[in-house]
Design a protein that fits this description.
- One of its GO terms (cellular component) is pore complex.
- It comes from Algibacter lectus.
- Keywords: Membrane, Signal, Transmembrane, Transmembrane helix.
- This is Protein involved in gliding motility EpsA.
- By secondary structure, this protein is α+β, with helices and mostly antiparallel strands.
- It folds into 3 domains: about 55 residues; about 100 residues, Roll (Outer membrane lipoprotein wza fold like); about 90 residues, wza like fold.
- It is built from 7 helices and 10 strands.
- Strands 7-6-10-8-9 form a 5-stranded mixed β-sheet, covered by helices on one side. Strands 2-1-5 form a 3-stranded antiparallel β-sheet, sandwiched between helices.
- It is elongated, with a radius of gyration of 29 Å.
- The two termini are about 15 Å apart.
Length: about 270
């Protein structure tokens, strides 16, 4: 009996030490989930963020919404597709917008093919307006051209609440806004190393950004671009099967310890 009691005390001491160690290393803390913390990477107390995002340049398979206005509305009707029947949505723009083909061109009414690959939307506005004045209108028509991307489309995968293709109808979206639009990163997601897969003319590149560091706001990847893929990896703690909080972790350990003790007595009584 004395030997059994000594054994139990020894096991309990081991269990207590193990529990304290596991709780201190496996629980998800505020440092893991709080965005834009001051980690000493910013010198001044107040951080003034300058827009580091480069102007987006149109790529193959982008869909453009082009609107032409003039003093005489009837003159520009042919250039403006009607969306009254299907609404001004991403699906509607798929059918009525101007898709950039594999050669970087769009097929514009009257004007024919216009190369837009690598141009900003502002440059495309100037280009379309110039061609219209050259081929169709006179200066007195006072035409006005607006070019926009048909929504900022991106994809979220991994430890986010809503996985899949997302669309935001804004010209500029930062990565935190994009993630919030997808329901935010789950508790088990690694915010310190979020991956951004971005398309370039020569192929795709993977970039890394630490969203728990306020210095992320100065990164050139803080603002997302159309067709970006945002990948959030799971924390290593998740693969261990530990709980998200200390209570959950202790509950798991206690359950395991209870199973071990029950098995010990069961075997001992056989």
């Amino acid at each position: 009996m004395v030997n059994l009691l000594a054994y139990m005390l020894k096991q309990f001491a081991f269990f207590t030490l193990f529990a304290i160690t596991l709780v201190s290393t496996s629980c998800i803390t505020n440092k893991d989930v709080v965005y834009l913390q001051d980690k000493g990477t910013v010198i001044s107390d107040s951080l003034q963020i300058q827009a580091l995002a480069k102007p987006y340049r149109v790529q193959i398979n982008d869909i453009l919404s082009i609107d032409v206005k003039a003093l005489d509305k009837e003159l520009v009707e042919i250039f403006n597709p009607t969306t009254n029947d299907i609404g001004n949505t991403q699906q509607a723009l798929y059918f009525t917008g101007f898709t950039v083909d594999l050669h970087g061109n769009i097929e514009f009414p009257i004007l024919g093919e216009i190369n837009v690959l690598g141009f900003t939307v502002e440059e495309i506005e100037d280009k379309v307006k110039h061609e219209l004045l050259q081929q169709y209108f006179k200066e007195t028509a006072q035409i006005f051209v607006t070019v926009k991307l048909a929504g900022l489309k991106y994809t979220t995968v991994g430890e986010v609440v809503s996985k899949g293709v997302q669309v935001i109808y804004q010209d500029r979206v930062n990565i935190i806004e994009a993630i919030a639009n997808a329901g935010d990163i789950q508790q088990t997601g690694d915010r310190t190393d979020v991956l951004i897969v971005r398309q370039y003319p020569g192929g795709q590149k993977i970039h890394h950004i630490d969203l728990t560091d306020i210095a992320a706001m100065k990164s050139e990847f803080y603002y997302i671009q159309p067709n970006d893929i945002i990948m959030v990896k799971p924390l290593k703690r998740k693969s261990l099967g530990a709980g998200e909080t200390a209570t959950q972790t202790l509950t798991t350990i206690a359950s395991l310890f209870s199973v071990v003790i029950s098995t010990y007595f069961l075997v001992k009584n056989l």
